[in-house]
């Protein structure tokens, strides 16, 4: 069975500077409409898992903001299946290492609002969808991978 994964950044994907909702700790919250777009795109791909690449992964699982994220995703039947373990500005390295530990992942996309060092990893760069809110998505690469093209199309449908 082929496995599809979305490496998810939260800030800049599920929210933007214009987001009015707040987390329990009074940080920028998560927009329900954006979670719904994500859920619809994953469903159109035939389902998939969410791997948290966002800095939110560093929160303790019992932290109110982490529970808030989990509950927002759960409203659209989404759940976090894992997370990367990179430090600071090495998000690409963290995703690369995650993929090496999980060879069952055959297709994936990366949703992020920042390029980090993804350009150093050709396969990651071709699957990176840059966002200013999930509805404002564009390819990082001039030669995006097929799954990035499909996922971008599914996002644009909603």
**Compute the gyration radius: what is it?**
14 Å
Q: Which structural class matches the secondary elements?
A: alpha/beta
Helicity level, as a percent range?
25-40%
Q: Which stretches are poorly predicted, pLDDT < 50 over at least 5 residues?
A: none
CATH topology: Rossmann fold
Tally of separate domains? 1
Compressed to H and E, one letter per element, the order equals EHEHEHEHEEH
Strand arrangement in the largest pleated sheet? 3-2-1-4-5-6
Approximate strand percentage: 15-25%
Number of contiguous helices? 5
Q: Calculate the mean pLDDT score and round it.
A: 96
Main beta sheet:
6 strands, mixed
CATH top level is Alpha Beta
* Shape designation: globular
According to DSSP, the number of beta strands is 6
Structure in a nutshell:
By secondary structure, the chain is α/β, with parallel strands linked by helices.
Question: What does this molecule look like?
Answer:
The protein is 32% helix and 18% strand. The protein is of the alpha/beta class and 158 residues long. It has one domain (3-156): Rossmann fold (3-Layer(aba) Sandwich). The protein has a six-stranded mixed beta sheet, with helices on both faces. Strand 4, helix 4 (122-125) and strand 5 (128-131) form a beta-alpha-beta unit. Helix 1 crosses helix 5. The longest helix is centred in the first third of the chain and has 13 residues, at 32-44. The mean pLDDT is 96.
